[in-house]
Amino acid sequence: MAKQPQSCAFRTSIGGQALIEGILMRGPEKQAIVVRDQEGNLVEKVEELRLIKDRHPILGWPLIRGTVNFLSSMVNGVKALMYSADFYPEEETTEPSKFEQWLDRTFSNKKLEGLIVGLSVLLGIGLSIFLFLVLPTGGLLHFFPDFPMWGRNLIEGVLKVAIFLLYLIFCSKQKDIYRVFQYHGAEHKCINCVEHGHPLTVKYVRESSKEHKRCGTSFILIVMVISILMFMVIRVDTIWMRILSRIILVPVIAGISYEVLQCAGRSNSKFMDLVSRPGMWMQGLTTK
């Protein structure tokens, strides 16, 4: 296999996401979804983007846009996943429950979809806060009461990274998720192929790298590192104030992390390559 050049011919803002037997690709003006159905046909769906920053320019400002783009990506990602899942419906062996029947009677299909998307995003954010904020933070004062604050913050950061790594390893062992991770690698290959100035053909895509600096996996790792550094400075003793401070500062940390990620994606400097390297290593799990 040909070795992928390290420097890009040009940079793009194209991003993407792996779906069930497909991928989503998002550019500055449009997004496209392609899914392989059960007959092996490729089904395409292209949509014009309506960006919230076009209606509210302040939401496109640096440090603010990171949180806005993250939430927007979650909402669009859940919608795209639901769309791809429709091509692979589960076999219904039982009658719908009374709750499911009530939902069908009460909400139209569009409203029900919006409700499911909203609940999925809230559950995703809530689970992330519990796993990466409450769980590592809540037990530290109990198990390490005599540690200096900087030591507890460092242990907290190591626990966050360890939980994230174990979570990715567990997911990668699941057959369905492993398949999605393969599409994640294919998505990266397509973007790298375009950014290196090659024709978007199977030959050049296969030769392209499956890791990318602007990946969401790298973003989460950068969030963890920024949070470790920030809470080395911000010192709170009581457990509830520690948890509350971390929740309140999530948008700030996400905003800073997003700017670091974008800078890494635009730069070929040795320093930014060094900053990106841990996230690229972590992508070895999510782009198999």
Task: Produce the secondary structure layout.
Elements: E1 15-19, E2 22-26, E3 30-36, E4 42-48, H1 52-55, H2 65-85, H3 98-106, H4 109-138, H5 140-143, H6 149-172, H7 175-195, H8 202-207, H9 216-233, H10 239-248, H11 250-266, H12 270-286
Helix pairs in contact: 2-4, 2-11, 4-6, 4-10, 6-9, 9-11, 9-12
Could you describe the 3D structure shown?
- The chain is α+β, with helices and mostly antiparallel strands and about 290 residues long.
- The chain contains twelve helices and four strands.
- The protein has a four-stranded antiparallel β-sheet, with helices on both faces.
- β1 (about 15-20) and β2 (about 20-25) form a beta hairpin.
- Mean pLDDT is about 85; it is low at about 1-5.
List keywords for this structure.
288 residues, alpha+beta, four-stranded antiparallel beta sheet, 12 helices, disordered N terminus
- From N to C, what is the helix and strand string? EEEEHHHHHHHHHHHH
- Binned strand content: 5-15%
**Main beta-sheet annotation:** 4 strands, antiparallel
Morphology call: globular
Helical segment tally? 12
- Mean pLDDT across all amino acids: 83
Task: Give me the side-by-side strand order of the main sheet.
Answer: 1-2-3-4
Low-confidence stretches: 1-6
Please compute the radius of gyration using only Cα atoms.
21 Å
- The residue fraction in helices comes out at 55-70%
Termini, distance in Å?
16 Å
Overall SS class: alpha+beta
Number of strands: 4
